[in-house]
């Protein structure tokens, strides 16, 4: 949520920033109108309460019956107006709150301006793309031939866009998750948490997934339980409605969870393989930092994400998202993509985002600084990394001419010393 003071004081700048994201800048005019009405109602209410208090006291002191009757009549009129004012104010407050929740974050000035992903900037490309002496095959063929996956049984038990990993396929995914968690906790300074995979609605409002993106989420129809689209949601809400001491900042958490998302926006796309599914695994990194440290924290977070493909020996690239391709909650974002030679495309495996105080205002997460002042914290998150696309890139990049897969050295201890995945 944007700061109402910023909207009041930097109206034109906020409008220009929102316009670059494709959002309607006239929303800010509506905010200001509702904000002015709310403040007028509050001011009028305060005035009426003061007047009511003064006239009520005067009644007790007035000895003249006629004047006393006049005062009683005046008090009645003030009470009526105060009741009317008090009945309108909550609806204005609610309308303003709902409107504020619908407005996206404003990009930082350094974010490149552009309408969509065509204007994203490739910051760097790292590692050589594999050039095997044979035509690379897609992962769904390789994994099926090696008995790593069962598409038919996955669809039988759960429907389209589901599958069953088995044997070395399940072991490889588990090895990747464990190795990534160990890397981030032992070397990058993260504390691991394992949060619930179901959260209350307020948690999704806090991270910006609701109310705008409810159609992409799964939920329980009877209780206030929502399946998480990413571990960012429960991890960010660990400190919901808390005031943290500045001495414990920065806080860096990493979490592995299954994630659940409807694939409505990708209907008909990537129907083969495991690129898009309603359920997938992900290792997520979340930072809570002081405002003045957040820009540097984004670079640190992104480097931690890129360390995973570096050590796996997979070609990857770093992109800076333009204003039109930022998420609803981000003010700056990098994407990390891995090259998949069988699919012949770059696959996004991490979005590293800086949110400023946008989420903290929605979830009311603050910290007490050295002067004892309560300030909103800045939050960041990024995948470190997301499955199953890491599996896709690894399988397709390390495929051998005989159909086997050579395992990267860093994963072999997590696979019990196994060096290759071959037909049994």
Number of helices: 12
Through-space gap between termini? 54 Å
Describe the sheet with the most strands. 8 strands, mixed
Based on Cα principal axes, name the global outline.
elongated
Q: Which percent range fits the helix content?
A: 40-55%
Q: How do the SSEs run, as a string of H and E?
A: HHHHEHEHEHEEHEHEEEHEEEHEEEHEE
Radius of gyration, rounded? 27 Å
Strand percentage lies at: 15-25%
Broad structural category:
alpha+beta
| Order of the strands making up the biggest sheet | 1-10-11-12-15-9-8-4
Mean pLDDT: 94
Quick one: how many beta strands?
Answer: 17
Ranges with pLDDT <50 over ≥5 residues? none
Describe the structure.
The protein is α+β, with helices and mostly antiparallel strands. The protein contains twelve helices and 17 strands. The longest helix has 37 residues, at 65-101. The radius of gyration is 27 Å and the shape is elongated. The model has no long low-confidence stretch (mean pLDDT 94).
In short, what is this structure?
It is built from twelve helices and 17 strands. It has 424 residues and is an alpha+beta fold. The strands form five sheets. An eight-stranded mixed β-sheet has the order 1-10-11-12-15-9-8-4. Strands 7-13-14 form a three-stranded mixed β-sheet, with no helix packed on it. Strands 2-3 form a two-stranded antiparallel sheet.
């Amino acid at each position: 949520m944007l700061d109402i003071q910023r909207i009041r004081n930097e109206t034109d700048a906020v409008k220009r920033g929102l316009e670059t994201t494709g959002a309607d800048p006239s929303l800010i005019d509506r905010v200001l109108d509702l904000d002015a009405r709310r403040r007028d109602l509050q001011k009028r209410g305060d005035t009426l309460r003061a007047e009511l208090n003064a006239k009520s006291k005067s009644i007790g002191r007035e000895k003249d019956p006629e004047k006393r009757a006049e005062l009683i009549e005046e008090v009645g009129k003030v009470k009526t107006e105060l009741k009317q004012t008090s009945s309108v104010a909550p609806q204005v407050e609610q309308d303003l709150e709902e409107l504020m929740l619908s407005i996206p974050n404003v990009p930082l000035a350094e974010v490149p301006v552009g309408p969509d992903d065509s204007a994203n900037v490739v910051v760097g490309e790292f590692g050589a793309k594999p050039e095997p002496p044979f035509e690379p095959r897609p992962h769904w063929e390789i994994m099926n031939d090696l008995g790593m996956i069962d598409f038919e049984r996955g669809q039988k038990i759960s429907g389209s866009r589901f599958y069953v990993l088995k044997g070395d396929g399940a072991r490889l995914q588990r090895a990747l998750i464990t190795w990534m968690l160990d890397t981030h906790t032992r070397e990058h300074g993260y504390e691991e948490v394992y949060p619930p995979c179901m959260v209350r609605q307020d948690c999704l409002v806090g991270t910006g997934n609701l109310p705008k993106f409810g159609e992409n989420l799964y939920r329980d129809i009877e209780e206030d339980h929502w399946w998480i689209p990413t571990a960012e949601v429960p991890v960010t809400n660990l400190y919901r409605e808390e005031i943290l001491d500045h001495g414990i900042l920065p806080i860096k958490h990493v979490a592995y969870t299954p994630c659940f998302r409807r694939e409505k926006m990708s209907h008909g796309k990537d129907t083969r393989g495991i690129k898009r599914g309603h359920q997938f695994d992900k290792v997520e990194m979340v930072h809570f930092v002081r405002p003045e440290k957040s820009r540097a924290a984004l670079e640190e977070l992104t480097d931690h994400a890129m360390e995973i493909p570096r050590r796996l020996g997979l070609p990857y690239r770093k992109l800076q998202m333009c204003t039109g391709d930022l998420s609803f909650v981000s003010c700056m974002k990098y994407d990390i993509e891995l090259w998949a030679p069988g699919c012949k495309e770059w696959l996004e495996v991490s979005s590293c985002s800086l949110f400023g105080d946008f989420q903290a205002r929605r979830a009311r997460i603050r910290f007490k600084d050295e002067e004892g002042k309560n300030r909103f914290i800045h939050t960041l998150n990024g995948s470190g990394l997301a499955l199953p696309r890491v599996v896709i890139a690894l399988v397709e990049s390390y495929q051998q001419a005989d159909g086997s897969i050579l395992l990267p050295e860093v994963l072999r201890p997590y696979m019990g010393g196994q060096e290759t995945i071959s037909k049994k």
